[in-house]
Amino acid sequence: QVQLQESGPGLVKPSETLSLTCTVTGGSLSNTYWSWVRQPAGERPEWIGRIFSDGNTNYNPYNPSLQGRITMSLDTSKNQFSLELSSVTAADTAMYYCARGAGLIEIWGQGTLVTVSS
Amino acid sequence: IVLTQSPGTLSLSPGERATLSCRASQTISRPYLAWYQQKPGQAPRLLIYGTSNRATGIPDRFSGSGSGTDFTLTITRVEPEDFAVYYCQHHGSSLLFTFGPGTKVDI
């Protein structure tokens, strides 16, 4: 079955760029939406954005603090997709999940905790 | 669309019935309401999609219902492994994929 695994630094300094990669096993990236979701400790999940297998992206337009800071990409040769979040602040500290789905999240990775601190 | 969930915490004993509510600030089409279960230290897991369809592998003690602005997740007989936080989610058009604040089901 399809499994997802996040990887990347667990600690990022303020004003720097958070970079995470999701490796998909048990299936391909083809003809599917892949999303990133984050969840601060004790809070509800928040959808960050998605990328389709052709590279088209949609980012969350409703959180002003995310505007202009998100970049998603994919590497079909490695069966991976990635998230970059620039100019991070402490408010970006959260568990970050990669996931399969356009908005309805069918499969979740186990998550990776990213802390923003100097 | 703002989702509110009630109660915030539901304290039950194994074998009891659980009824969780999700209310939307405006009408949601039935295909676009989902429920997730999250246990401590784990990622959320899809339970119900399209208001009433169980996801793969979800036991039939879980059921979803509702329409308009009021939706319900029911667990007919709570098992020990069901103690968790449950989130409803709207995943409709316009990229508005919002989660409710969650209901914690505990012992």
Structure summarized in a few sentences:
Chain A has 118 residues and is mainly β.
Topology diagram in text:
The complex is a heterodimer of chains A (118) and B (107).
Chain A: E1 3-7, E2 11-12, E3 18-25, E4 33-39, E5 46-52, E6 57-59, E7 70-75, E8 80-85, E9 94-100, E10 107-108, E11 112-116
Parallel strand pairs in A: 2-11
Antiparallel strand pairs in A: 1-3, 3-8, 4-5, 4-9, 5-6, 7-8, 9-10, 9-11
Chain B: E1 3-6, E2 9-11, E3 18-28, E4 33-38, E5 45-49, E6 53-54, E7 62-75, E8 84-91, E9 97-99, E10 103-106
Parallel strand pairs in B: 2-10
Antiparallel strand pairs in B: 1-3, 3-7, 4-5, 4-8, 5-6, 8-9, 8-10
Describe this structure in words.
The complex is a heterodimer of chains A (118) and B (107). Chain A is mainly beta and 118 residues long. Chain A contains no helices and 11 strands. Chain A has strands at 3-7, 11-12, 18-25, 33-39, 46-52, 57-59, 70-75, 80-85, 94-100, 107-108, 112-116. In chain A, strands 2, 4, 5, 6, 9, 10 and 11 form a 7-stranded mixed beta sheet that branches. In chain A, strands 1-3-8-7 form a 4-stranded antiparallel beta sheet, with no helix packed on it. Chain A is globular and about 40 Å long. Chain A starts with a strand and ends with a strand. The mean pLDDT of chain A is 96. Chain B is an all-beta fold. Chain B is built from no helices and 10 strands. Chain B has strands spanning 3-6, 9-11, 18-28, 33-38, 45-49, 53-54, 62-75, 84-91, 97-99, 103-106. In chain B, strands 2, 4, 5, 6, 8, 9 and 10 form a 7-stranded mixed beta sheet that branches. In chain B, strands 1-3-7 form a 3-stranded antiparallel beta sheet, with no helix packed on it. In chain B, a hairpin with a 5-residue loop joins strand 8 (84-91) and strand 9. The mean pLDDT of chain B is 95. At the A-B interface, strand 10 of A face strand 5, strand 8 and strand 9 of B.
